[in-house]
From TrEMBL:
Lineage, top ranks: Eukaryota, Metazoa, Chordata, Craniata, Vertebrata
Organism of provenance: Sinocyclocheilus anshuiensis
Protein's name in the database: Leucine-rich repeat-containing protein 28-like
Underlying gene: LOC107662304
One Pfam family recorded for the sequence: LRR_8
Any one Gene Ontology cellular component term annotated for this protein: cytoplasm
Superkingdom to which the source organism belongs: Eukaryota
UniProt keyword terms in alphabetical order: Leucine-rich repeat, Repeat
């Protein structure tokens, strides 16, 4: 194994390779051959996944100054040297599945960094200096011990995807609502009790995963046309001892979709609020379409009655009607038939406060 390692590094030096793959080499220490003499000035991508490294050399930036990507997934690294901040060209850093308890503030000096992955470590807090990473697009800090996120994180104006699943977060900094390019926010399996009222106000934010937050008491109204939880086909979940939610309109009682009770569950899918609202309206309309007087509580303009009667399609798994495209990564919500409706009318839908099992009505304006 050692001879193969030496040969791989020797060939990389001789042929001036830009990429070096040292995955699955059972390495306990960083290879000294990489750091001899002038090091590897031409190396841009170093892959050292699934080894047994416990630390990184202090002269890493000096010997590998042109590193663009550094992948250290699945090692035993407990300490990152302060000299990591000298890797001025680094764009991707993967330290997932290690033994990190602290991230040094010098990481904020990586001004070219675009992707930072720190998932599955033992981090209890993150340095405020993360806010200095102006080019950062992806941040994954899931499966740690975080109770809060850095207040200065909102200064990462290029951030598009923030993942902090399976931590101990009780709240989400309101400043994160100011991030102009944030498209996906994942906070599943935390201890969230509420979300900022401004969350979802940005048109860029399309996906908000907050499933399995058992104490989440409400959802901001701006999330009405976003994807909440894990978007799926809407296959009905098993209802055991939980009493099924119902909506009473006049003398008619309409059972609500079972998804309403599963925002705090790991197993069931949660659909966009807009989709759930349309399904309830559709079910109630079909059951009482002969009673013209019953249409009054819907508060729907005549132009929308056709939408209630004729869904875009039906799910091939559960046969439920679909009014929005429930696979938004392939068909963004803004491209569905309802997108134009929101721009030209005001609709009264039912908003669901899933964790507290309550209902309230609010106006959605385009």
């Amino acid at each position: 194994m050692a001879s193969e390692l030496h040969e791989a590094i020797f060939m990389a030096k001789q042929e001036r390779h830009k990429n070096l793959f040292l995955n699955y080499r059972n390495l306990n220490i960083f290879p000294v051959e990489l750091l001899k003499d002038e090091g590897m000035q031409f190396l841009e991508r170093l892959f050292m996944k699934r080894n047994s490294l416990t630390t990184l050399p202090d002269n890493l930036a000096q010997k590998l100054p042109n590193l663009i990507e550094l992948y250290l997934h699945s090692n035993n690294i407990a300490i990152i040297p302060q000299a990591i901040g000298n890797l001025g060209k680094l764009q991707s850093l993967d330290l997932s599945d290690n033994a990190l308890q602290v991230i040094c503030p010098e990481i904020g000096q990586l001004r070219s960094l675009r992707h930072l992955r720190l998932a599955n470590n033992q981090l209890k807090f993150l340095p405020q200096e993360l806010g200095d990473l102006g080019e950062l697009e992806t941040l994954d800090v899931s499966m740690n011990l975080l109770r809060t996120l850095p207040e200065r994180l909102h200064q990462c104006l290029s951030l598009q995807c923030l993942t902090a699943d399976r931590n101990q977060l009780h709240c989400l900094p309101r400043q994160l609502c100011l991030l102009p390019d944030l498209n996906e926010l994942s906070m599943a399996a935390n201890c969230l009790t509420s979300l900022p009222l401004d969350l979802g106000r940005s048109m860029e934010l399309q996906f908000v995963f907050v499933d399995n937050n058992a104490h989440l008491k409400g959802l901001p109204s701006y999330l009405y046309n976003k994807v909440i939880g894990c978007s799926g086909c809407g296959l009905a979940g098993q209802i055991s001892d939980v009493k099924q939610l119902c909506l009473t309109l006049g003398d008619v009682t309409v059972p609500l979709p079972s998804e309403l009770k599963t925002i705090g569950s790991e197993t069931d899918h949660v659909l966009p609020l807009e989709e759930l609202a349309c399904r309830v309206q559709h079910a109630a309309y079909n059951r009482t379409s002969k009673d013209v007087k019953f249409l009054t509580p819907f508060l729907l303009p005549k132009s929308l009655l056709d939408v209630v009667q004729w869904p875009l399609g039906h799910c091939h798994r559960c046969s439920q009607p679909m009014f929005t495209i429930v696979y938004p990564k392939l068909f963004p919500l803004r491209e569905t038939a309802l997108a134009g409706v929101h721009k030209r009318t005001t609709v009264s839908f039912v908003a669901y406060c899933c964790s507290s099992h309550c209902l309230r009505t609010f106006n959605l304006q385009g």
